[in-house]
Specification:
By secondary structure, the protein is an alpha/beta fold. It has a domain of 104 residues: Rossmann fold. 47% of the residues lie in helices and 16% in strands. The protein has 8 helices and 8 strands. A 5-stranded parallel sheet has the order 2-3-1-4-8, sandwiched between helices. It has a 3-stranded antiparallel sheet with strand order 6-5-7. A hairpin with a 5-residue loop joins β5 and β6. α4 packs parallel to α5 and α6 packs across α7. It is globular and about 55 Å long. It binds zinc ion. The site of zinc ion has 8 residues, from loops.
Length: 212
C-alpha cells in the first residue's frame, strides 16, 4: 500500500493541481468540507451534531473533524491524500495520534520562494465569462486580452484579493502556521520537500518518485 500523504503548500504553490492528479493514481482525496456534507446527508448522530454547529454559524472544532475522519477513513485499506487538513500543528498531532497511528505516511511540502509565489498570484487572470485561468508570465493568452477558450475580449480579470499587499499578508500567515508543522514532520522523519517552481509535469514526476 502507498503511504498516506499530507499535502502542504502555500496558496499559489500548485498543490491543488498536484493532489487532483494523484487522485487518478489510486489515491483517495479527503476533503473535510465533503465529509461534513456527506455526514449531514447520512443523518447520523455525528451528522446532526455537525449540522447544528454549522447552522449556528460556528466553525467545526478539531475534535469533531477528527471524529468525522475516523468514521469515514479506512486507513488500513485505502491510501489517502489529506489536503487542507491539518491546518496547524495541533491538528497535525491529532491526525497522527488519533488516526494515522504509525501508519506509513509522508508530509509533502510544495516549496516555493515567496517572491515566486507573489509573482504567480499577482499575474493571475481569470476569464470572467468562462473561468479559464491565465498567468501573464507563464501562461498568457495567445492574443492580449482575448480568452483562448471562449474568445471573450477584455474579460480577463484580476481577482480583487490578488494584489501584492494582500498576497504578502496571506503568505506571512501561511508561513507562521506551516513552519511548526514542517518541524513536526521533520522530527518524525516524515517530511519531503518538493521544488514547486518546476513545470507541473516535472513536479508531479518528482512526487511519484517519492511515493513509489
Ligand atoms: Zn473565456
Amino acid at each position: 500500500m502507498k503511504p498516506h500523504l499530507i499535502i502542504l503548500g502555500a496558496p499559489g504553490s500548485g498543490k491543488g493541481t498536484q493532489a487532483s492528479r494523484l487522485a487518478g493514481k489510486g489515491y483517495r482525496h479527503i476533503s473535510t468540507g465533503d465529509l461534513l456534507r456527506s455526514e449531514i446527508a447520512k443523518n447520523t448522530e455525528l451528522g446532526q451534531k455537525v449540522s447544528g454547529i454549522l447552522s449556528r454559524g460556528d466553525l467545526v472544532d478539531d475534535n469533531t473533524v477528527m471524529a468525522l475522519l475516523k468514521a469515514n477513513c479506512d486507513i488500513n485499506m485505502v491510501s489517502y491524500i489529506f489536503d487542507g487538513f491539518p491546518r496547524n500543528v495541533v491538528q497535525a498531532e491529532m491526525l497522527d495520534t488519533q488516526l494515522l497511528q504509525g501508519c506509513n505516511s509522508i508530509a509533502v511540502y510544495y516549496k516555493l520562494e515567496p517572491g515566486v509565489l507573489i509573482d504567480r498570484i499577482v499575474n493571475r487572470r481569470t476569464c470572467a465569462k468562462c473561468g479559464e485561468i491565465y498567468n501573464l508570465n507563464t501562461k498568457p493568452p495567445m492574443k492580449s486580452n482575448v480568452c483562448d477558450k471562449c474568445g471573450s475580449i477584455n474579460e480577463l480579470k484580476q481577482r480583487k484579493d490578488d494584489t501584492q499587499e494582500v498576497v504578502s499578508n496571506r503568505l506571512k500567515i501561511f508561513a507562521d502556521t506551516v513552519n511548526p508543522m514542517l518541524l513536526f514532520y521533520k522530527a518524525k522523519g516524515a517530511l519531503v520537500e518538493i521544488d514547486a517552481s518546476k513545470p507541473e509535469d516535472e513536479v508531479f514526476d518528482n512526487l511519484e518518485k517519492v511515493i513509489c
